């Protein structure tokens, strides 16, 4: 039985990956942070959701705890998913973001070496399309590939770029089987409510049941290459099964605006949106009632924005045989359907 260690087990991807690896027959260990005893409500919630995961307490900032975890578990595969992952938040707390999202990767790699596992343990680093920055000058027509130029536009993107390069450096310096998946946005029913897609799907469900009047958003113009997280964790695993370590882009090859996501999400509750006004005065209005359902709150604008992300997953499709099951429309439907069901359940429970 192979052993896998996942950091960020309590996050969106951690849950999808744990289930996927468990179903493949792995013994799964997951790192959870904080002063958590088995009686802590959050620890209990994660354990209840994934009873098959052995939870290990450690923090990405704590090299000693990470080294101990490596020595005790001796994992065959390590998936480093933990990070301060919210781009907007990284502008508010850039130092912590550099420490966790950047230097935390170095701590993981060093922990593997200090435990004497650098020749046996395979390491996956969660790199990101945010490293490209979405600027015109470096954007290939068919989308970013593994060799496109990086130009990160946030403290998060800069920290991730350090993680990306230090992973490559450990591969080249010590012959470690260490690689990065450069993943474009992936979403789903486990997505945190602070990210725009889940904020929209949860709000649409609350609006449907009269619990919320409208959604306040920031930049509606930005475009993202959005896929389903369940499809992307399969790609992470495939990368670690190859005979040689290499970096791969995972993306859909399509890009859509925040506005389009809103339109499709409201369609799921039979509302047609039309857009009125410009800039900070723009509104999304219900065509049949004239009610404003989306408005702009500049609080959600970022100091620097990534306007457009589009990835080219050809290498992963060709070399890994990676395929996706969920397309953009299917993703919006899946998320709104999930959040409508959750609201219905709350209503039924009184
Ligand atoms: P997520 O839901 O934000 O999960 C991140 C996890 O990291 C959380 O469980 C968090 O713990 C944990 N964490 C934060 N600081 C930590 C620390 N100091 N020590 C230990 N754990 C810590 O992120 P995700 O969407 O699953 O993404 C997984 C990874 O892929 C992240 O590295 C992200 O940056 C990267 N990525 C994501 C996407 C995407 O579209 N989702 C795309 C490209 C790359 P708590 O639960 O305690 O907060
Ligand atoms: N979060 C948020 N909240 N974003 C908003 C809002 C809002 O109210 N209104 C507009 N947006 C815009 C953001 O400005 C951004 O252009 C876009 O929606 C997507 O924002 P997020 O959903 O927060 O995701 P992200 O693209 O910044 O970052 C995610 O994807 C990266 C991969 O490209 C995160 O998962 C990162 O961890 C990941 O690396």
Which ligands appear in the coordinates? NADP nicotinamide-adenine-dinucleotide phosphate, guanosine-5'-diphosphate-alpha-D-mannose
Largest sheet: 7 strands, parallel
**Net shape:** globular
Radius of gyration over C-alpha positions, nearest whole angstrom: 21 Å
> What proportion strand?
15-25%
The number of E-state strands comes to 15
Structural class: alpha/beta
Can you give the mean pLDDT? 97
The helical percent reads 40-55%
N-to-C span:
45 Å
Widest sheet, order of strands: 3-2-1-4-5-6-11
Helical stretch count? Answer: 11
What can you see in these coordinates?
The chain is an alpha/beta fold. The protein has helices at residues 12-23, 41-49, 63-73, 87-92, 94-114, 155-174, 196-208, 229-240, 258-267, 314-320, 328-349, and strands at residues 3-7, 27-32, 53-57, 77-80, 122-128, 178-183, 186-187, 215-217, 223-224, 227-228, 248-250, 256-257, 273-276, 283-286, 292-296. The protein has a seven-stranded parallel beta sheet, with helices on both faces. Strands 8-15-14-13 form a four-stranded mixed beta sheet. A two-stranded parallel ribbon has the order 7-10. Helix 6 links the parallel strand 5 (122-128) and strand 6 (178-183). It is globular and about 65 Å long. The chain starts with a strand and ends with a helix. The model has no long low-confidence stretch (mean pLDDT 97). Residues 7-8, 10-14, 31, 33, 59-61, 81-85, 100, 126, 128, 183, 185-186, 192 line the site of NADP nicotinamide-adenine-dinucleotide phosphate.
């Amino acid at each position: 039985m192979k052993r896998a260690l996942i950091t960020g087990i309590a996050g969106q991807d951690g849950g999808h990956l744990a289930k996927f690896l468990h179903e493949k027959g792995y013994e799964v260990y997951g790192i959870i942070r904080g002063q958590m005893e088995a009686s802590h409500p959050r620890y209990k919630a994660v354990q209840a959701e994934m009873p098959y995961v052995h939870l290990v307490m450690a923090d990405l900032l704590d090299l000693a705890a990470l080294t101990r975890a490596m020595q005790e578990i001796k994992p065959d595969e390590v998936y480093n998913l933990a990070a301060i992952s919210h781009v907007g938040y990284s502008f508010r707390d850039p130092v912590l973001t550099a420490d966790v999202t950047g230097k935390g990767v170095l701590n993981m790699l060093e922990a593997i070496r200090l435990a004497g596992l650098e020749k046996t343990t395979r390491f996956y680093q969660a790199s990101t399309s945010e490293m490209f920055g979405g600027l015109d000058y470096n954007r290939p027509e068919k989308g970013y590939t593994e060799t496109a130029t990086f130009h990160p536009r946030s403290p998060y993107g800069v920290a991730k770029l350090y993680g990306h390069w230090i992973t490559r450096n450990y591969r080249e310096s010590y012959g470690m089987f260490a690689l990065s998946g450069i993943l474009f946005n992936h979403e789903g029913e486990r997505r945190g409510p602070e990210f725009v897609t889940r904020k929209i799907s949860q709000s649409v469900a609350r609006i449907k049941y009269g619990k919320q009047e409208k959604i306040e958003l920031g930049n509606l113009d930005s475009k993202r290459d959005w896929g389903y997280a369940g499809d992307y964790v399969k790609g992470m695993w495939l990368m670690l099964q190859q005979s040689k370590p290499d970096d791969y882009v995972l993306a859909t090859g399509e890009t859509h605006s925040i506005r389009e996501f809103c339109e499709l999400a409201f369609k799921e509750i039979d509302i047609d949106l039309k857009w009125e006004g410009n800039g900070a005065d723009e509104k999304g209005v219900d065509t049949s009632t004239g009610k404003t359902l989306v408005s702009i709150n500049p609080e959600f604008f970022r100091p620097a924005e990534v306007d457009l992300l589009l990835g080219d997953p050809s290498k992963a499709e060709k070399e890994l045989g990676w395929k996706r099951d969920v397309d953009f429309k299917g993703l919006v439907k899946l998320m709104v359907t999930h959040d409508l069901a959750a609201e219905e359940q709350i209503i039924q429970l009184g």
